[in-house]
Amino acid sequence: MAFGIYVHVPFCTTRCDYCAFATWTDRWYLADDYLEACASAARRELDGGPLATSLFFGGGTPSLLSPGQLERMLETVPLAEAAEVTVECNPETVDLPKLRGYRSAGVTRLSFGVQSMDPRVLASLGRRHDPDSVRRAVVAAGAAGFGGSYSVDLIFGASAETTADWEATLRAVLAFDPPPSHVSAYALTVEPGTPLAAEPHRHPDPDLQAERYLLAEEILTDAGLEWYEISNWARLGSECRHNQLYWDRGEYLGIGCAAHSHRIDPATGWARRWWNVRTPDRYIRLVAAGSPTEAAGEDVDPLTGEMEALQLALRTRRGVPAASLAGGCGLACAGVAGGCALEGLVALEPGGRAVLTPRGRLLANEVALRLLPPR
After folding, report:
1. What are the structural domains, with CATH classification, of the chain?
2. Whole-model pTM?
3. Residues 6+ apart with CB under 8 A from 274
4. CA distance 140 to 97
5. DSSP label at 284?
6. pLDDT tens-digit profile of 100-130?
7. Which stretches of 58-162 are DSSP H helices?
8. Of 136, 148, 145, 126, which is closest to residue 95 (Cα–Cα)?
């Protein structure tokens, strides 16, 4: 059974202008106590539980951790054979010795937060690295034994970015040696309370973002990376197994402050999801006291869970049963020119499944409104 573990590392050296995650730039002094709390929580929560098929260190900036710190955390997690172990990395925080240490500790996959290969665009996002540091990190990853087992995260739609800049970024990352086996491309979003939110003149233009998404689809597909979720493309076999758990409505446990968990009772079909307290200080105190770290949660009935599963599946390459879309392609209106409310947004594929087209991915939330409750 697939089962994932997410470990939240809430420390950063600086905060990006668009970031609203649970991260802090002034609490690195808590790192050792925090990791010990995470290890204690993992031992407590995972005692007698399933083996993890994926382990994901996210943040924050997990690559601030030394190989030794990471290894001590890995020793507390019961992993299945050939488990996927991913660490998110800021390019400027890694070098060859560190990545060799990560590899030796059991890390199998890296996820580089590149965002752009244009210095002006990086500056407009509040990022502190430059294109040269990205190239150095990729070379170090290859030399450390990761080969192409790394992902590149990109963001499009910054006010300083032109369509030519975005195309140049895509082509630059595909030209890395070794090239990435996975690319994530996210539209820049404006989160309340961030520096970006306070400056409307820097907010992204949705029409330009749509244009750049379609350009990414074209360039990445031509390079041999196939989309498998709206914002993710990968070479066959290089999909992120951990993130697929989320899109498959699978089970996972979140370790650390602000981390989310999801479990399903196989006997009843009811699910429970919950999330931990937000600050590392409080998380440390609660674990030390043997107290629950949950901040809040909710129970999900089976019917609601099935609808959520459809909504998530719609975002992926496997799509949904055509019969689950009201008035969608593959139903009574199939093949009737102009008669389908979702014409051009979904395509009917063998097996009777409806899959979003590139244009449909831009309007996925609108398509999801036409999903029918499971019968």
Report:
1. 3-245 (3.20.20.70), 319-368 (no CATH)
2. 0.95
3. 260, 261, 294, 295, 296, 297, 298
4. 8
5. H
6. 999 999 999 999 999 999 999 999 999 999 9
7. 67-74, 96-105, 119-125, 131-143
8. 136
